[in-house]
Amino acid sequence: MLRIVDSSFIKSCTKPEHYPTNPFVDIAFAGKSNVGKSSMVNTLVKRKLLAKKSNTPGKTKLINYFQISLKKDDIEETFYLNFVDLPGYGFAKVGKSEKESWRRMIEQYFRERTQLRAVFLLVDIRHKADSKDILMIEMLESMEIPYCLVATKSDKIPKNKIPATLKSLKKQLNSNTDKLFAFSSLNKTGTLPILEWIESEVL
Ligand code: GDP
Description:
alpha/beta
């Protein structure tokens, strides 16, 4: 089994010149503000405050890089990854020019970051598909970037409704992916399947 044994903040970036120069692959986390992105990163690495929670609307948006160390049970070697916390989107209060700069920053990251291996796209399990999420999926699919859909806050719906809800979310979002996960930072649902996916598809 794969375990995350260490994690540390590397840096915040806005453009490619600032991206870290280490040789490790990136796994990026994207989604609307408040979807539970920081909580998910913190839950996966088992630290309460690695990724900061709830960025204030209107504050400068940054791409935050974390270095993650992982071990497999039966192997001495340590593996490394970058977790990349992309700026959240979808604040109603944000003006047109800030939306445009967000879009440019993310598009540039997707286009230029050759080490990008996969994106976890987070959507709230209780919410209907949103045009901004659909736009994000269109961007990922047209750029042929592998991604998983993660339905967050799964503790908010009954367990037996999760499979049908995931299916319906995928349909509403018009997504091609068959990588669907339910996740809860509250009860840790999804942690194991996501680590297993990273072990089999990324490392
Ligand atoms: P971000 O803006 O996407 O980074 O979202 P945060 O991680 O800051 O979470 C936004 C809000 O949702 C906070 O109040 C969290 O406590 C709450 N939250 C995050 N994850 C979960 C979850 O799995 N279950 C529940 N019930 N609440 C969550």
